[in-house]
Amino acid sequence: MFVHVVGRNDKGIIIRGAKAHMTGMVNSHEMLIMPTAALGEEDKDYAVSCAIPVDAPGILHIFGRQTNDDRKTEGEIDQGNARYGVVGGECLTVLENVFVPWDRVFMCGEFEFSGQLVERFACYHRQNYGGCKGGVSDIVIGATAAMADMSGYGNAAHVKEKINEMIHLAESLYACSIACSCEGKPTPAGSYYVDPLLANVGKHNVTRLIYDINRLAQDIGGGITATMPSESDLKSPEIGQYVEKYLKGVAGIPTEYRMRIGRLIENMTGGTALIESMHGAGSPQAQKIFYSKLANLEHKKSCALDIAGVPSDALKPVRDAAKKKPVKA
Amino acid sequence: MFVHVVGRNDKGIIIRGAKAHMTGMVNSHEMLIMPTAALGEEDKDYAVSCAIPVDAPGILHIFGRQTNDDRKTEGEIDQGNARYGVVGGECLTVLENVFVPWDRVFMCGEFEFSGQLVERFACYHRQNYGGCKGGVSDIVIGATAAMADMSGYGNAAHVKEKINEMIHLAESLYACSIACSCEGKPTPAGSYYVDPLLANVGKHNVTRLIYDINRLAQDIGGGITATMPSESDLKSPEIGQYVEKYLKGVAGIPTEYRMRIGRLIENMTGGTALIESMHGAGSPQAQKIFYSKLANLEHKKSCALDIAGVPSDALKPVRDAAKKKPVKA
Amino acid sequence: MFVHVVGRNDKGIIIRGAKAHMTGMVNSHEMLIMPTAALGEEDKDYAVSCAIPVDAPGILHIFGRQTNDDRKTEGEIDQGNARYGVVGGECLTVLENVFVPWDRVFMCGEFEFSGQLVERFACYHRQNYGGCKGGVSDIVIGATAAMADMSGYGNAAHVKEKINEMIHLAESLYACSIACSCEGKPTPAGSYYVDPLLANVGKHNVTRLIYDINRLAQDIGGGITATMPSESDLKSPEIGQYVEKYLKGVAGIPTEYRMRIGRLIENMTGGTALIESMHGAGSPQAQKIFYSKLANLEHKKSCALDIAGVPSDALKPVRDAAKKKPVKA
Amino acid sequence: MFVHVVGRNDKGIIIRGAKAHMTGMVNSHEMLIMPTAALGEEDKDYAVSCAIPVDAPGILHIFGRQTNDDRKTEGEIDQGNARYGVVGGECLTVLENVFVPWDRVFMCGEFEFSGQLVERFACYHRQNYGGCKGGVSDIVIGATAAMADMSGYGNAAHVKEKINEMIHLAESLYACSIACSCEGKPTPAGSYYVDPLLANVGKHNVTRLIYDINRLAQDIGGGITATMPSESDLKSPEIGQYVEKYLKGVAGIPTEYRMRIGRLIENMTGGTALIESMHGAGSPQAQKIFYSKLANLEHKKSCALDIAGVPSDALKPVRDAAKKKPVKA
User: Fold this and answer.
1) Which of B275, B276, B287, B292 has the most A C-beta neighbours within 10 Å, making it the best mutation to test the interface with A?
2) Is CB count within 10 Å lower at the N or C end of chain A?
3) CA-angle at C85, arms to C81 and C87, nearest 5°
4) pTM over 0.90
5) Is the pLDDT of residue B86 over 80?
6) C160 in helix, strand or coil?
7) Interface probe with D: pick from B158, B162, B164, B328, most Cβ of D within 10 Å
8) C-alpha dihedral, D140 to D146 to D150 to D152, nearest 10°
9) What is the ipTM of this complex?
10) D170 to chain B, minimum CA–CA distance in Å?
11) What is the DSSP letter of A229?
12) How far is CA C227 from CA B291, C230, C269, D276, in A?
């Protein structure tokens, strides 16, 4: 199913397959095709990288559903992200015999580099997740604190403690992005490559801490974020007065404002927002695999042996046994 | 805003106010009104408990929005819970001068019992949360395991480990419901009252462990649960073939089945489902308040003093100081 | 190395091998020998269960070290558990050709029952862990709260919150013991057997929550629990006055009391106490293995399929494939 | 009790008081005295900073006890950290009328700078905790992996998964140290000051993640780390053969090596090592206090308001109310 070369001539190549989970595709002019795994010679047709206009002949985008996407076609309040969330989403992009001229083909058959290309792309992508989700979390924190203020419990000790906890977690995400960037090293080409171990650590923290941040947001946000009537109810000539009266928070703040913030919390802390933090830039297990490769466990063992007064070659029998009987993954 | 008595005569009472977050109200025949906090004499009009038909004159139900509720009016697949999730939801119930005859009034002004009534209701409600959400989690676990099977990674070591972890968490919830029931004691009236400390512990675990269970479900469920095209796309004469082809899991299982299970995971692990676990039967802080009251901390201190060889009255200076200067909450 | 039969005659059997991690052995009159795993016919000499006086000829107990065991031979304060912690500990018990008369032999070669025997023993043992460690945690909570009182911060909001959290965790452990007992079922012999799934869930929670409880105890206990001078320093004619003066907490409480409680916290929250919670009654992975066996995952899957509107035999292709290629553990 | 000025003349000042938890003091030539809190004018005698030889007249060091410190006076194996752990520990340092010449006095009465001085010191100290404990954790990881190898389960899937988790947590600590350093800014004096928010985030993570890392080390390390006989038993002519035989791991690795690594795990994962991670460079609550001050919560709120379509001054009623009735801490 992956995109692969099905034909080539002196003008260019013809490719076929599909790309899934394409965030932002429908808002873009061009797309980049890349392999998604290390490949062997038998897969060399899949070792293809190129740039194509998103509306080139043979391309079909099937837009996915996001949580509460229907609300984007109604009024404004129930969307939550009233200002910036109207468009966007993921799609399944199908490429049916798409022609790509040679001057837009960057890889075609060089399978031996595909693993490195995937790894580089993944690490750059994971680098930015702590910045992205750290920033997203700042908004969640702000919305949560605003909801607490509007509801009259912004100064309760346990609320302040939970908001501090959210700050702690969001900054932990941010720290990982900074760290893997700061520890980046220049490549021979002059561009900088992030520290791959720390980049993976950052993304992996996103797959966990976002759930804790959002749990706390839902804790402080209150049940009202899940049971609130609709914008139509609020604006209804008949029943709007009741919504206005009974969803009111502290004096002086319109009910509508509290509803808007409640909807923003609902929007940012459930469904697609969570799953995106989990799987965007690679699923959790994809990061864990890097740890075994990059963390230099043998060096850690030898330091421990030295401190404990054990000779440095003490584990040789284990290594020898492993050589005889290769370990299954 | 709380429901309170605004008039009374020899036939009955007249009440006014609102009840929020009313789960199942719109599917019920009768509703029970109860106070929501311990009350003082100045609030005795709020010490009211009675039963009323949900469609009595003066009652208005404003139905709330749930995550993805719009999908219930479309086809079947995108709902997730295709069989049993069509109706239901919470509402804001407004009571505008509703008459209740005396034979349906259970409390009217006896403010000194309102605290006990609330506490009892809360503990019974919290008792059942580990059973309810334990069972809900069993479905989430089953859906997750089915998705892993359908996608071809059901036997990966990390997937099996995560499903075991989900089982561990779900059974931990269930254990709390069993324990608080088992430790229940008969009241003078003959009915049994749950152990209130353990009932609160059970509900409090729901406010946390459900998030972990659902995080793992989204981990194993994959990004596809958030980016999947709609039922209409799958059934479209034009593009259905692509959805069919590219969302396919293991051989022999129709793409539609995999989509249905993916939608079920989406439905059960985000939005309203999470917030309901957080705030249903009382918000987290409501449980924590019980711990201070019920855990007999002074006895624990005296045991520790004894074991450490400290006289049992060693903390008297602290208690004396506390008496002089009452501690602020 | 496991204990096994090396000879038999008409009077009894002769066994050899070792038992490790024997808690309480040196304070007991008799020991029970049991197999430790499911066995096949080729291991039938290891299928042996019997009772032996702990000082029978051929038995050697090699007492293990516990954290800070040396302090038990000094004065009283630095032990922490001043009253009840003097004796006790684990040992490695070696059996060198120990004779056991037939009337004290309960199993000898019936390998086909060894798995069941181990499982039963393990589940009973795991049953009691939530009670045991729940109670131990009550003392840790009491000591922590006493330390906070003695140090003058017992009423700080964050301290009270953390103590409530400790209560929550300790009661969660206790709930599991109650639940697995309550759900126990009578065996044909009339004795009751605990619910094995819930018993494992309880023990597994001990391997985690004790670490959280103890972490919070160390948080509130303060750095002083790790840097405190010795009892000898406190009682020194020369420098005792400085220890007395500078480790003083609130007015009216002798420094010695605060030191005693600090030492109790140190004693109960680190080293052997932690490792015992981790591995006593079986290591964490031993519980996880039960989950796969006992949680009826196939039933959970079929419920999920039904709710999502998927036919009940939808996973047959996966099961068929599994039959063809047996899954590796 | 804090160190303060009790006399001054034209040669210098005379100070009195005590410093607690002094790590490394007994291995040092000089000590730096600093205030420990923001001070008001009434406390100006406590606003003192100076350098003193650790053996100046009037100074007394009372060495504290560490977990298993007695083992340092025995043989080598039971210490765990056989090579580098022999000396070291914390002490309570008493200053009884110690004279300090003016040229070694850096602050004397300038109370208005004491808060800033404490904050700066705390943040620099917290900066290095992720590097320190990240490195310490690398040794714990190495020891754990070596123990798994020596015991024959180094290739079990759940063991590898847990070691990867330990790596994840250790690198998360390290990332915070890098990030707060990288985001450091030059002061007018030209020296660089760390980002104080991220420095606190890093230390706060140490107070948690170390417990998780060590829990996993104890999980994989096995019960043997808590029940192992002593070095004397191993070397005993009589019973050493049994220890040798029954604590043996994989073929080819001497039992002594396995015991040494087991002792290293015991040494690094319990007692003082844990408490040091908790309270060194400031207790957890000390970091949380910084979050409220440094995280710019008002800005986060205003971003959330904007995104939700709420006017930027919507929270003015809350701020106005707060001004009227000042919030209690």
Assistant:
1) B275
2) C
3) 160
4) yes
5) no
6) helix
7) B158
8) 100
9) 0.95
10) 21
11) B
12) 32, 9, 15, 9
